[in-house]
Amino acid sequence: MSRQRLENLLFYLLLAAAIALAGWLGDRYGRAWDWSDSARNSLGSASVQLLQRLDAPLEMVSFAPPDPALRQRIGDILERYRRQRPDLVRIRFVDPARQPQLTRELGIRLAGELRLGYRGRSENLRTLDEEHISNAIQRLLLRGESWIVGLTGHGERRLDGSANHDLGEFGRELERKGYRVQSLNLAESPEIPDNTGLLVIAGPQEDYLPGEVKQIRRYLEQGGNLLWLLDPGPLHGLEPIASRLGLTLLPGTIVDAEAGALGLDDPTVAVVSRYPEQAAVRRFDRITLFPGAAALRVKPGAGWQVAALLQTQARSWNETGPIRGRVRRDPEQGEQAGPLDLGIALTRNQPRDQRVLLLGDGDFLSNAFLGNAGNLDLGLALVRWLSHNDNLIQIPARTAPDQNLELSRGAGLAIGLGFLILLPLGLLLTGVLIWWRRQRL
């Protein structure tokens, strides 16, 4: 064999070995690069952080027919999760037609529906995007059977209500985050259930009975967590609870001069833009709006630690007179200048780690105002802290800014004329010109 042939053979052998090695490395150590706008084809930092908390296998089972296009779309989404935790995230496809009994037992009703399983808990998903999948994973990570219980029977804002003053939208958002929400009428229940993780009292309109107040007081004495959303006006029979917590409402409604500077027509909307370094609001930096709020003052008994979470701006006060026309502060009427406290946290360690949050406004979480500024995010952060789920992650909805192409009427007309008329006409003229030149040669 000549030297040239030997070198050629060696070259092809090395090339084949390099190709085989590249294939093996690609199969064993996958790499992907996302060059899309805002990296929308990769998981966000919140989802990546969530996956790092997995300590057991996460099963992702898609009930999709053997349609290559459908399974490819679903697989592309799920693969983003497996790339982050290939040791624990497991993806599997099931053909519903081949396993009809299993499909019925698991409540699968839609082609491509996803079933997530983690530590014996499971959930079905029909909307497959990062926000819904990551929120479902977070719900599966939640441990325990504690409930968020909202009191009813006295005209309170209901966590499942649809009226403008109710908290139904907020309640549904809590359920999407993995919390279990229910209503409780103390007149029908002998006591507050032991699995209550957080009790919510939201703006009652009628007086509580002495026996109901006794149940609430016993719940607090046993270390229960409480979210009390107050409004200007009477306490409706809850004075013993307020006295127990050292709570006093300043008279009147908060008026904030900063509201006009922000373009708000209602001076009774209190603006909060700064937050202390307290666990409930740490790193929270969004403006929140509190319509028709009451100012609070708390002097609790021994054992309680107090922290002011929400304070109004300096140009605010508690207006005790009618709010119409040009309103001015009148110190002689007991109207105090801001900053005023409208959100106060109380904590103590006996008999267990107990957290109580007093808020001088229930409207900010109502259906009518929940979407204002950062109200929803603040409400979720406060509930996470109250329910001892401080490590829960806020999974944002991610949208791509370049999904829609918006053209003016002139631009659309120019593009249409260009492709439908000018371009074909140009090609025709070019062909005629080439033919004419060839005829002359």
TrEMBL record:
Record key words, sorted: Membrane, Transmembrane, Transmembrane helix
Transmembrane segments: 411-436
Domain ABC-type uncharacterised transport system residues, every copy: 151-369
Source species: Sedimenticola thiotaurini
Official protein name in the record: ABC-type uncharacterized transport system domain-containing protein
Domain (DUF7088): residue spans on this chain: 40-102
